[in-house]
């Protein structure tokens, strides 16, 4: 298991965070392991996460980026959750490669520098805003880059507008993976 390669403190923190998965809307361990492997295999360098929560997914992404030499920009609306995430990032030795931003994700994305490039984006926030997030990430996503969105099976009705749009977009190839909540994984092909 991937988690067995982590230091004891990180394993302990991730195990504790898994006990509060439903309270903090965290991704499953299965999805976390998939993201870790995907980011390492893809050799992602510039990752954006929408929906930090308590930092569970950010720790997994951060550990993967430690292997690739990449950086993570993570955005969370709720300041108290972001404070908890920052503590968890520091305890797991990934805070040096993570830039946490507090605020409305759409606003933060809207004001990214024009030359800000994204290899991989992970979206796990307000499901009704997935389409909006996609439109704001899209200009920054490099050709060959990916956008992954969680909860596309568990919240199918709320994310249907996003799935309809990305599936109809000729610049993307999208697949829905049968991970616990359903993960949309779209590659920008042109």
Fold and architecture overview:
With 190 residues, the protein is an alpha/beta fold. It is 43% helix and 23% strand. The chain has eight helices and seven strands. The protein has a seven-stranded mixed sheet with strand order 3-2-1-4-5-7-6, with helices on both faces. The model has no long low-confidence stretch (mean pLDDT 97).
Work out the helix count: 8
Could you tell me how far the N terminus lies from the C terminus, measured between alpha carbons in angstroms?
35 Å
Round the mean pLDDT to the nearest integer and report it: 97
What fraction strand? 15-25%
Q: What is the CATH-assigned architecture? A: 3-Layer(aba) Sandwich
Which ranges are low-confidence, i.e. pLDDT below 50, for 5 or more consecutive residues? Answer: none
| Number of distinct beta strands | 7
Strand numbers in spatial order across the main sheet: 3-2-1-4-5-7-6
Largest sheet: 7 strands, mixed
CATH class: Alpha Beta
Per CATH, the superfamily is Vaccinia Virus protein VP39
Number of domains: 1
Q: Can you lay out the helices and strands and say which pair or pack?
A:
Elements: H1 8-18, H2 21-24, H3 29-42, E1 46-50, H4 56-68, E2 71-76, H5 79-91, E3 98-102, H6 105-110, E4 118-123, H7 130-137, E5 141-150, H8 156-168, E6 172-177, E7 183-188
Parallel strand pairs: 1-2, 1-4, 2-3, 4-5
Antiparallel strand pairs: 5-7, 6-7
